[in-house]
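As a warm-up, study this chain.
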Amino acid sequence: LDTVREVYSHEQGLRQCADFLKAHPAWKGIARLNTAEAGRYVAGSGDVTKAAICSRRAAALYGLEILAEHISLSESNYTRFVVVSPVMERRSGSDKVSALFVLPHRSGALHEIMTHFAVNGLNMMKLESRPIVGRSWEYLFFVDFTGDLADPAMDGVLRELSQTAESLRVLGNYRTCGG
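Now compare it with the structure written out below.
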């Protein structure tokens, strides 16, 4: 740690370790594309004044020595990765569905679709809205809710949701991380 002058990581990794970095005011935090790439860059440089905030796996992959552990602001921080594919892949044990939908621009539309979640016993874990470009005051909604697409009852739920929404797209079904 005595030789470190520059610390590389994804900007979120630098933020999550802000207190640790503040304890070393001579160090300069430098953002990279992602934490693994930061590890690769530091390893490739061979420069002992450079360090990376990256995963244990990236450190092993690039032959880096771990200088400090548990430096995050929160012990519960973890990184989630999303694999994007043109074909839906189903895995056993999936318990969370991510979807997006657009609602008709009318009073009560959001309440109506949320009722489907409640009636079917689906716990909505996240709901975010984003403006639709070119359509003033209209929004696209991203939702995470409990469920497994392999459950036969889910076909009926998705049918109900798609009949209420202007459009509905399932983004994925996966196992909940960290809990």
